[in-house]
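User: I'm writing a short methods note and want a consistent example. For BNR repeat-containing protein, I'll paste the sequence; you return only the structure tokens, no commentary, since I'll be parsing the reply automatically.
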Amino acid sequence: MRLPTAVLAVGALLATTAALPAGAVRAGTGPAAAPGPFVEKLADTRLDDEALYFVSYDGLVNNNSFQKNGVLTHQGYQYAAWYTADRSAVIGRRKLESAARDSRWQTVKLGHRLKSDDSHNVISMGVSKADGRMHILMDAHSDSLFYVKSAAGLMNDPGGHDWTAAGFGPVQTTLDGLNLTDQFTYPQFVATPEGALQLSYRVGISGNGRNALAEYDGDTWSVLGEWSSSSGTYTTRHGSSDRRNMYLHGIDYDTDGTLHAFYTWREGNGAVMCAPGGLSNHDTGYVHSTDRGRTWRNAEGTVIGTTGGSDLVAVGDPGTVADPLGPDHSLMNQETQATDSANRPHALVSYVPGRFGQCTTDYVRDRTADGRVFHLHKDDEGNWHKTEIDVPLDSTQRTKLAFDAYDNAYAIMPYGRIVAASRASGWTDWKTLYNGRELNAFGEIVLDETRLAQDGVLSFMYQRRSSGTTPSPIRVIDFALPR
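Assistant:
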């Protein structure tokens, strides 16, 4: 096992195992203990010195954590997507020649410019392994989508293809002629174990929307259908609501082919809240699918919804609440999720705990002052566990979750702070490993989940703070983790 020399945070446990390769046994001591969490900065590279900058919904269009695959790695190349100062949609790539050596980013403009100053209108990428294409969706918030796909083979043989605009097709407002909805938001691409590419998206609007899936088989897109319900009655001591939408923390396959989804509900009627100015989000839910998203099961394995059917996953379905919480604590939507090496589901959630009061009246002020992040996970017996990360959120924004090869957990908090907990502690010993001050990051980061899975490097995109609409640098930073 190779341990970096310039470690930012090392536990005493590391000192006893640093000279041993993974799985080795020191004479007379039995099996070597797994290392605890640490990070070592490898590189911090520039994508664009003048990326588009404006604050909307307290976020940036280039760095929203729900921007699944705003950065991705495939076949030894890393790709990133952003809007540059002239509002052009740009895709960049670089060859990852070694973990500690970065190569120059090449960029391509896609022939589309952002239509409005709305931070929801992110760019998301996906790869269909069957035909080697990149798929790109962008610039939508409860309205029409913009779609581009690359030439076949571009992603499966990147070294054999020039990185130019000629490698991409025209901008479309359908998926190759397939109309999804005229109220499209939150595109998230996810690859199935067989190599098909699925698309998760929302139909409708905040407080009255449904999650849906489409699928690309290497030749044709098809709609699988909606799978979450916006109907039903939800009641608190303040009032009731009869419409809502499910906000996903993510949608991801584990190594056994199970599709996992954590979520929160947002009610369409603010009467359920103790006061205006908060968030009508409530409860952290969890469902999973063992048949590629066709049916959905609760934590106990009972089918509670069918994609494209009449019985959708609904607010009152039994066995779906992993962590109950009312709408008076400014619970954030679309936070983060991941699975560990044993395919146990984990999530991070953030809100204002009850010790700071039982009624948030201004979610920006209250989350910034008193917000905290909590780690949730389900054990092998099916029980849910929850631990507070004892680092003030100091932000309205979201945190991302990652695991290293030893199942140590890493929370990448707003401003690029990295906080971690060891598997040995049961993920209870959360400590700050990297304070992020040198980044001058605005807030949320976009995590390269694919690079983490492929080579164990923690790599994320961030944008530096600016003011007004003055463009600012956007960059990708890489950290080594225990291997």
